[in-house]
Recover the amino acids of this structure.
C-alpha cells in the first residue's frame, strides 16, 4: 500500500488525516458538543483535452478539506475549511457550534446508530495510481481523436478527446469511536466527434461520443478503440429522420438503461420517501417490476466505482437484493431519512453501492434487437422529463427504427413517453451486453410498449 500511495502523490499520510480528525473531534467535545463527526480528505489529478490534433486544455487539480458536523443534543451545525492548521480547525469547529446553537431541534438528527457502524473495516483496495505524465496524456488524447478521424472522411469535426487521472483519500471519524478511510482512484478516456456526409452539410451533422471510466487504467480499452467506437456511433446517425406518432416496443441501449436503474434509486431514496415526493411511497414488499427482474447492490465489487465498506456516516455497507422477482425489497436510507420513516439506515448515506440489473438471459445486443423485432432502439435522451411523484416519463430521444430485428434507419426529433410504473412492469428482458457507468451496471432493456411522438 505504501508504494501505491506514494505513486498517487498524496500530500499527507493517512495517519496525519486521522490525527486532524481526532483533533477536531476533541475540540468539539471540549467546547460542549454532545456528538460530532469529521471528514478529512485530499485529492489530486490531471486532465488533458486535445481537439483537432491540438492541445486544448491541461488541468491540474489538488484539493483538500475538512468537513465538521456537530450536535448540541438534537441541534446540528456544519462548517468546512481547506486550511489544515490547528487554528483553522478550531475556528471551523467553533463556526459549526455557532450554527448549531441557532438551529431548531430535530428529533431525527444525530449520528448513526452505534450498532450499525462498521468495525475494523478492511481496505477495499480501490487505489490504482495511473502514473501518466502530461506529454503521455497528450499523446494518448491525440491518438484517441486520430483513431476517430481515421474511421471515415465523413468524421469532419471533433469536440475533443480527454484523458484524466484522479486520486483521492479520506478519513471519516465520529465521537462514537468510529474512524476509517481509504485511498481511491478514478480514471477515464473519452472522445466526442461530429460526422457529416459533406463539408457543407451543416444541417445534416450528427455527433456522438463514448467514454470508459475505471479505478485501474489497465482496465480501460486501448484509446484507439474508444475513438473508433465514438466515430462509428456518429456515422451511424447520419441520415436520421422523424417518424410518425405511434405506440411500440422500445429498447433502451445499455448506457440509457442505467438511467432506468438510477430512477429507481431516486424514487426509493429516503428523502423522496419521507417527503412523499415519490411514486414508491409505501411500495416496500410490493411487485413493481416484471417478475423476472432482479436488481442487486454490492459494496464489495473488486475495483467497483461505488465500492466501499461503509457509507458517509460509517454505517457498514452490505450486499443485498433491492429488487428480487420484481418485488421491491429495499430502500436507500441514511440515518436521518430512516428515522423520519421509523426505520433503520441501510448504509446508503451518500448514495448506492454498485447497482446491477441482472440479465434475464444470455442475450447480447444483437439478440436483444431480435427480441425487439419491430420497434424503437433509443441511444440518446434529452431533457429531464421525469415526475417522481407520479412516475410520468417524457423525454426527447434519438436512435434507430428496427424492423425484423435489424436496424432499418436512424431517427431523431422524437419524444418517448410513458410512466415508470408501467415501464418497470413492462420489462420484457434485460440484456447481457453489460455497461458500467459510475455506480450502475446494466445491459440493454426492452420495454413492451411506450408512446413515441414524432411527425
Amino acid at each position: 500500500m505504501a508504494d501505491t500511495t506514494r505513486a498517487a502523490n498524496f500530500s499527507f499520510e493517512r495517519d496525519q488525516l486521522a490525527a486532524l480528525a481526532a483533533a477536531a473531534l476533541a475540540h468539539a467535545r471540549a467546547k460542549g458538543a454532545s456528538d460530532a463527526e469529521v471528514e478529512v480528505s485530499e485529492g489530486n489529478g490531471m486532465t488533458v483535452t486535445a481537439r483537432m490534433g491540438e492541445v486544448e486544455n491541461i488541468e491540474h487539480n489538488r484539493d483538500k478539506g475538512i468537513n465538521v458536523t456537530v450536535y448540541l443534543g438534537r441541534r446540528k451545525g456544519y462548517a468546512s475549511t481547506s486550511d489544515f492548521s490547528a487554528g483553522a480547525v478550531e475556528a471551523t469547529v467553533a463556526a459549526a457550534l455557532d450554527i448549531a446553537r441557532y438551529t431548531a431541534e430535530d428529533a431525527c438528527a444525530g449520528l448513526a446508530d452505534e450498532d450499525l457502524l462498521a468495525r475494523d473495516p478492511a481496505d477495499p483496495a480501490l487505489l490504482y495510481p495511473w502514473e501518466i505524465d502530461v506529454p503521455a496524456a497528450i499523446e494518448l488524447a491525440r491518438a484517441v481523436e486520430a483513431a476517430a478521424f481515421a474511421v471515415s472522411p465523413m468524421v469532419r469535426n471533433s469536440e475533443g478527446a480527454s484523458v484524466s487521472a484522479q486520486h483521492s483519500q479520506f478519513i471519516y471519524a465520529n465521537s462514537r469511536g468510529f474512524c476509517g478511510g481509504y485511498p481511491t482512484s478514478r480514471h477515464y478516456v473519452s472522445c466526442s466527434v461530429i460526422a457529416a456526409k459533406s463539408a457543407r452539410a451543416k444541417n445534416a451533422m450528427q455527433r456522438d461520443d463514448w467514454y470508459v471510466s475505471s479505478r485501474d487504467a489497465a482496465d480501460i480499452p486501448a484509446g484507439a478503440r474508444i475513438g473508433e467506437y465514438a466515430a462509428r456511433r456518429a456515422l451511424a446517425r447520419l441520415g436520421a429522420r422523424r417518424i410518425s406518432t405511434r405506440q411500440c416496443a422500445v429498447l433502451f441501449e445499455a448506457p440509457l438503461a442505467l438511467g432506468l436503474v438510477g430512477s429507481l434509486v431516486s424514487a426509493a431514496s429516503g428523502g423522496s420517501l419521507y417527503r412523499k415526493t415519490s411514486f414508491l411511497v409505501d411500495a416496500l414488499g410490493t411487485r413493481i417490476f416484471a417478475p423476472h427482474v432482479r436488481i442487486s447492490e454490492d459494496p464489495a465489487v473488486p475495483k467497483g466505482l461505488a465500492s466501499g465498506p461503509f457509507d458517509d456516516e460509517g454505517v457498514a455497507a452490505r450486499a443485498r437484493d433491492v429488487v428480487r422477482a420484481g418485488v421491491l425489497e429495499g430502500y436507500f436510507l441514511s440515518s436521518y431519512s430512516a428515522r423520519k420513516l421509523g426505520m433503520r439506515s441501510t448504509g446508503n448515506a451518500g448514495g448506492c453501492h454498485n447497482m446491477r440489473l441482472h440479465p434475464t438471459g444470455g442475450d447480447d445486443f444483437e439478440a436483444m434487437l431480435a427480441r425487439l423485432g419491430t420497434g424503437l432502439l433509443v441511444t440518446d435522451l434529452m431533457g429531464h422529463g421525469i415526475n417522481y411523484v407520479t412516475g410520468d416519463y417524457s423525454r426527447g430521444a434519438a436512435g434507430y427504427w428496427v424492423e425484423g430485428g435489424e436496424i432499418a434507419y436512424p431517427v431523431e426529433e422524437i419524444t418517448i413517453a410513458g410512466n415508470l410504473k408501467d415501464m418497470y412492469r413492462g420489462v420484457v428482458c434485460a440484456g447481457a451486453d453489460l455497461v458500467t457507468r459510475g455506480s450502475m451496471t446494466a445491459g440493454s432493456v426492452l420495454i413492451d410498449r411506450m408512446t413515441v411522438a414524432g411527425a
